[in-house]
Specification:
CATH topology of the largest domain: Umud Fragment, subunit A
Oligomer: single chain
CATH superfamily of the largest domain: Umud Fragment, subunit A
CATH architecture of the largest domain: Ribbon
Strand content: 35-45%
Number of domains: 2
Shape: elongated
Structural class: alpha+beta
Number of strands: 13
Largest sheet: 9 strands, mixed
Number of helices: 3
């Protein structure tokens, strides 16, 4: 396992396996002469009898952000980089009872689809929401929160806060009698007055309806 530093926290990122590296190398060799390989050509180079095995490797490479595939094209593979440049969905964050924030990378988001404006993709990360403590703010379980990395926020901002530097939750940052605390947007959940640090500010929510 290799370690990546995201928002002040080390998260483990599973590297490419040797065979995944070999498949990626074959793709890059074809692209150097200007022609993406077909799945069958990759299978022949790898010595696989089944094209389904190649599809499994391509799915893994695409999920990790190394390639992009254009649908309905036999030669639709594009190599992005040896290091993923997309925005990682680094894990699940609990919008309810705080839980561990970073477990692994479950996928990537294309920054071109997020309309970030002047915000660099290196300054944001994504977390999947679990729980319903922020439903009153329109944040539901399964949503993907786009978070701008920053150690401070203003009163009223919705933030990703780290409880005791190990647990994370999405809440609204509030202040009462000079004390900062985390306020849920669901009356069934109590406010959090424990010590916390801010990992970032939620700037967008992505939701799929399919």
């Amino acid at each position: 396992m290799t370690s990546t530093h995201v928002c002040g926290i080390n998260i483990s990122v599973e590297p490419l396996t040797e065979k995944q590296k070999k498949v990626l190398g074959i793709i890059q060799e074809f692209l150097q002469v200007g022609i993406p390989p077909t799945i069958r050509e990759i299978a022949q180079k790898m010595g696989f009898s089944s094209t389904g095995t190649v599809r499994d490797y391509l799915n893994a490479l695409e999920k990790k952000g190394y390639i992009r595939r254009r649908k309905n094209l036999s030669r639709g593979i594009e190599a992005l980089s040896l290091q993923p440049k997309k925005i990682p969905i680094v894990a699940q964050v609990v919008a309810g009872k705080p839980n561990l924030a970073y477990e692994d990378i479950e996928g990537y988001l294309d920054p071109d689809d997020l309309f970030l404006g002047r915000i660099s993709q290196d300054d944001v990360f994504a977390l999947r929401v679990k729980g319903e403590s922020m439903i009153g703010a329109g944040i539901r379980e399964g949503d993907i929160a786009i978070v701008k990395k920053q150690p401070e926020a203003n009163e009223g901002d919705i933030v990703v806060a780290l409880i005791k530097d190990t647990e994370a939750t999405i809440k609204r940052l509030c202040r009462r009698n000079k004390q900062w605390y985390l306020e849920p947007a669901n009356e069934n959940y109590p406010p959090i007055f424990e010590e916390f640090t801010i990992a970032g500010k939620v700037i967008a929510i992505i939701r799929k309806y399919v």
